[in-house]
Give the backbone structure.
Amino acid sequence: MGDEKKSIFVHLEELRRRVLFSIIAVLTLSALSYIYAGKILRYLAEYAKPLVFISPQEAFLSHLKISLFSGVILSSPIIIYNVLSFVWIALDKGEKRIFITYLIAGIFLFIAGACFSYFIALPTAMNFLLSFSSDLLKPFISISRYISFSAFLILAFSVAFETPLFIILLTRLGLINSELLRRKRKYLVVLLFVVAAILTPPDIITQVLLAIPLLVLYEISIWLAKAVERKK
């Protein structure tokens, strides 16, 4: 019993250290990103020009928001590394050899999600939402609201694209298998659309743009889970 308690405390201490290190990375890179906040804003505002600010402090606070958003994006490799390092404890010697593969895959999927969001989902969503403008309705988009909209959308896609990695990890830990994923496919399809509705703005176009890649990634995850089972 004493050894079990000691093991739990060791795991909790390791988790605390990983979380603290990730937070420090986010804050440090956010501070450095503030230098380039203006340039980053130009790229983000590409699909919603011109932006306005309706309070004296809004533009300044928006630059801070951009810095924090950039800090999270730039520190994503560090965060993924810490998550996988914590999971490392539960893996055997053979599984630890593929740690680098998981790390690279996680970073690649995160970047792929961000790129898909910025180049496809964000402009498509903005074109759809701004199509409701008319002589009666003119869009005057607040910089703060637009940054929140675009940043949340990009982060939602980036995290959602990590689905195959999480499924493979759960498969290796024996918590799920490919047969379970296939058997529960119809329920997961509904769940994925619900998740897409929660993570995206309340318009059907953006929700579908997230749900479709999630469905594709889910099918890929089933195939990868089966490959992991065969290898084991």
Summary: The CA atoms of residues 117 and 160 lie 11 Å apart. The chain has a mean pLDDT of 81.
